[in-house]
Amino acid sequence: MSLHWTQHLILVPVLLPLLVGAVLAPLTQGWHRLKYWLSYASLLGLLATSLALIFMTDGGHWQDGMGIYLAANWSAPFGIALLADRLSALMLLLTAVLGLASLHFTRTRWGRIGVHYHTLFQFLLMGINGAFLTHDLFNLFVFFEVMLAASYGLVLHGYNAERIRASMQYIAINLAAALLFLLGTALIYATTGTLNMADLAARVPLLAGDELALFKVGATVLALAFLTKGAMWPLGFWLPTTYAAASPPVAVMLVLMTKVGAYVILRLWLLIFSDGAGAAAGFGGDALLYGGMATIVFGAAGMLSTDTAGRMAGYGAIVSSGTLLAVIGYGQPALVTAGIYYLVGSTVAVAAFLLLIELIDRIRTPRSAMLALTMEAFAVEDAPDEPTGRGVPAAMAFLSLAFAACALMIAGLPPLSGFVAKFSMFHALLNPQVDGAAASIPASGWTLMVLIIVSGLIAVISMMRFGVRTFWASGATEPPKVHRSEVAPILFLLALSVLMTVQANPLFGYLARASDGIHRPGGYIYRVLDAPTVPGPGSAPGLAPATLSPQEAP
Amino acid sequence: MELVISLAIGIVFGSGIWLILRPRSFQVLAGLMLMSYAVNLFIFVMGRLWVDAPPLTPAGSTPNPALLADPLPQALVLTAIVIGFATTALYLVVMIGSRGLTGTDHVDGKEPEL
Fold first, then answer.
1. CA–CA separation, B111 vs A309, rounded Å?
2. Which of A216, A312, A408, A441 has the most CB atoms within 10 Å of its CB?
3. How confident is the model at residue B16 (pLDDT cuts 50, 70, 90)?
4. What was the pLDDT predicted at B12?
């Protein structure tokens, strides 16, 4: 008796990048072409795996859309359980897609600068994928550290003074956050005696008195670690500097890592502090809501105040992170559905923008950059010798159109995915449901809506200011030298956003089922704790696993 | 024993916090190491304090769980030490790189203007 082969697919997103990364490590830079293609093959494999997982979780292949993999055949509360449901499968797909775009971008330039770029990139993917799949708090810590350690190396990639200064802060912040993670985990273990998330969710309703208070302290300390990663105000101050300093393909992956923090909060909070959690139900929801709102304000103010594109993208990521945290804290299933759509859409948008920035930078000759500054400072009114009668080079047209598309997505204007996300969030906020019946909209709901609209407006203003200065009023520009491998990932991400808009209906159906799954912790707890182990070759021959499972389960 | 160990953890952690708020990168590094020692001690304590309780089951007999110390915190602390050690070493390398590239050990990469 053994597992069905599809069960092993759950482990592939962790193992494949690990193995490929290990194979790439000893290869010298003379093999950089081979390294690139091996890395590419690994990402295509991840893409195929995540698509397969999506079809299996959503296609009724697994009961309740949950595939459970018990590592080393230990039953659930004792061993490490990996679980793929609709949400984690979607996040795996997002990782593979962004990884593919980022890797494609490195082909001509970035991948050749450092020796171990591709190795670190694979380990980063392993950490991110593992964090999406694991359902054990300590294992989550390990995957977080794998992801962070790889990201330290990647942020330093292409080594200059600015990068080293940014990574000093980035590493110090993350080391401190990792210590908080351990403290929180320790407190949670001390009060509940378990680290498995399903087991934890089952035990939380039984807590009372001092134990409950201590557990809440532990959960808060743990949340601080995730919120530092997810850049909630005031813990997200490191983010714009790091994003602006990192090379563009790395910054794309950093955008995704910010979302890992939000993902863990989404998963853990809805599970542990669900309505069925007794005295602990809904703990920290308000803190997430108001913290998220403060983050939106901070990010929007930052967007308005900066004039470098890299920092603007960083603040844009902060705004989207804040929106997401506020949505989680607001506590309404329909809103969470829209929130996940927003997560995917905004990640793709900011990623495309970050890749675009590098190409845009190439059209600004040093003279034009100085000119733009002078125009700003002295309010020069007449445009400097305008080139007349010269056709716009195709690359210029592409850059400006792609920039416009990114601006539309980040600001949330129609017709691209940002608008669909905001519209559906407003729809959910305006039609609050309490136990299936319509309810009135609380003041916090109105505030959140106003903040989302205002932050969108600010995004439009700052993006437009940047666009006008870059594409119209920049004076001496040169047609940029762009390579096909750098244009393709941007086009790919933009096309993806268009696809998300066109196919919004089936996508929302999927997301609603995903959100429904994470809002029903009861079934999840039962499925994980009752997951059957594989009996050994000597034991109980001839018995079907279905009859074995009740005795095998603890 | 509880008082001693909690005071020890508190003092070490507090010193660590003070050090990571200092402007020199070496002090930050020392602070991070102190903090990670305190956290490791804290993880040990989360399995409760025991005296004379073995962490592993003796061979050849049926173990009584009540007589054994909780082995899980020890397994966790081992992982935490390894990871903490590796990331601290990495930070040290970045620190040396920063010192070489900027010529100062200030965390901002430049001396404050007096």
1. 27
2. A312
3. very high
4. 96
Coil, helix or strand for B48?
Answer: coil
A184 in Cβ contact with A221 (< 8 Å): yes
Give the CB-side neighbour count of residue B42, counting CA atoms within 13 A: 25
Q: Do residues B33 and B15 touch, judged by C-beta distance below 8 A?
A: no
Q: pLDDT digits over A456-513, tens only?
A: 899 988 888 888 887 776 555 566 677 777 888 888 999 998 898 888 888 888 998 8
Q: What residues contact A325, with CB distance under 8 A and at least 6 apart?
A: A227, A230, A232, A262, A265, A288, A289, A291, A292, A295
pLDDT of A544 higher than 50: no
How many angstroms separate the CA atoms of A427 and A407, rounded? 23
Residue A434 bridge partners (DSSP)? A437
If one counts every other C-beta atom within 10 angstroms of the C-beta of residue A489, the result is 26
Both structure tokens of A89 = 């499968």
CA distance A129 to A121: 12
The answer on pLDDT for A546 being more than 50 is no
Q: So what's the pLDDT on residue A331? A: 77
Average pLDDT score over residue span B75-101: 88
Query: What pLDDT is recorded for position A547?
Result: 39
**Mean pLDDT for the stretch of residues A400-413:** 84
Contact A123, A146 (CB under 8 A): yes
Lookup: tokens for A15: 């193992």
On the question of pLDDT at A378 being above 50, the answer is: no
| H or E stretch covering B33 | helix B25-46
Of the CA atoms within 13 Å of residue A238, those in its CB half-sphere come to 25
CB A216 within 8 A of CB A283: yes
What does the alpha-carbon distance between residue B54 and residue B44 come to, in Å, rounded to a whole number?
Answer: 14
User: Would the CA dihedral through A395, A401, A404, A408 be positive or negative?
Assistant: negative
Report the residue from A168, A183, A189 with minimal CB separation from B39.
A183
A187 contact B CB<8A: yes
CA distance B67 to chain A (A): 17
Is the Cβ–Cβ distance between A77 and A42 less than 8 Å? no
What pLDDT score does A543 carry? 43
Residues paired with A81 in a beta bridge: A70
Residue A5: how many CB atoms within 10 A of its CB?
7
* Interface membership of A217 toward B (CB under 8 Å): no
Element (H, E) at A434: strand A433-434
The Cα B112–Cα B114 span in angstroms is 6
CB distance A476 to A368 below 8 Å: yes
Burial of B94 by CB count in 10 Å (0-12 exposed, 13-18 middle, 19+ buried)? buried
| DSSP states along A241-256 | HHHHHS-HHHHHHHHH
Q: Rounded to whole angstroms, how far apart are CA atoms A527 and A522? A: 9
A245 or A126, greater pLDDT: A126
The ipTM of this complex is 0.91
Residue bearing the bigger pLDDT, A245 or A125: A125
Tokens linked to B72: 């899980």
Return d(Cα A307, Cα A284) in angstroms, integer. 35
Which residues numbered 9-68 in B keep a CB inside 8 Å of some CB on A? 20, 25, 28, 32, 35-36, 39, 42-43, 45-48
Distance between CA atoms of A154 and A149, rounded to whole angstroms?
9
- For residue A537, what are the contacts with CB-CB under 8 A and spacing of at least 6? none
